[in-house]
Amino acid sequence: MAYDYFAQLYDELMNDAPYDQWLDFFYRTLNDYQLPSAKVLDIGCGTGELALKLKRDKFDVTGIDLSENMLAMAKEKAEHEKLSFPLFQQDMRELELGSTFDMILIFCDSLNYLETLDDVKQTFQRVYEHLNEGGALLFDVHSLYKIHSIFINHTFAYNDENIAYIWESFPGEEEHSVYHDLTFFTKTGQDLFTRHDETHYQRTFDIETYSFLLKEAGFQCLKVCADFTNDPPTKTSERIFFIAKKNS
C-alpha cells in the first residue's frame, strides 16, 4: 500500500536513516565499475531525501513513488531549497516515463513492497527498458534473516514529546513475508494525542532468486554485497545490495 498518514511523519521518524551511506554506496559503485551516471532515476523516492542529495551534487535526477503524499512532501522540500526535478506518481511494476537513464536506484527496501515473483520480474523488465546501454540498477532488500529473526513476532516502540508509535510485526501469508502493524500517536493539543493506524506488507526472496530474475530480464549481476559494505552477505546480514548492469 502507499504510505498514508505515515508520510506526514516519515522524515521525523527516519531522522537517523543512513541516507549518507546509500549515497556513499552509489558513489563507490560509480567509481568501482566506471558506470555512466548523467541521468539518475530514484524509484521509491519517498519524501525525496536521497534525490535532493543527488540534485545538490548536480545530477540530473528524477523521482517516482507510489504515494502521492510522499511526493507532495518531496516537492515541498525541493521548492524550499529552490531546487527542481521531475517527480511522478507511478507503480514501479508499470514504469512508463518515455525516457531512459544511466542509473536507476531502488533503495530503502522499496522493492520489498512487491508481493510476488511476477511483480519483481515485471519491475526488473520495466527498469531494463528504461536504462541506457551500459546503465546500471542498484537496489537493496531485506535479508531472509532480517524478515524472520528481526521483524517477525517482534515489537518496536518510539516515544518523544510530540509523537509515539508502536510497531508490531507478524508473519505474512506468503513465504518470507511480514505484516507491519503501525499505530501512531501524535500530539494535537495540550495532553491530547490523536491515534492513526496503518498496515504495511513486505516480502523478500533469497539471493539466488533475485539473481535469476535479473539475468532473466537481461541484466548482468556485477555484485551482491551486504549492509553498505563491499563484503559478501553472511547468515546474519540484514540488508542485501545488488549491482546489475544492462548488457550492451
TrEMBL record:
Pfam families, sorted: Methyltransf_25
Gene Ontology process terms (BP): methylation
The keyword Lipoprotein is annotated on this UniProt entry: no
Protein name, per record: Class I SAM-dependent DNA methyltransferase
PANTHER family per UniProt: TRANS-ACONITATE 2-METHYLTRANSFERASE, TRANS-ACONITATE 2-METHYLTRANSFERASE-RELATED
Organism: Terrilactibacillus laevilacticus
Domain Methyltransferase: 40-135
Source organism, top-level taxon: Bacteria
An MF annotation (GO) of this entry: methyltransferase activity
Record keywords, A-Z: Methyltransferase, Transferase
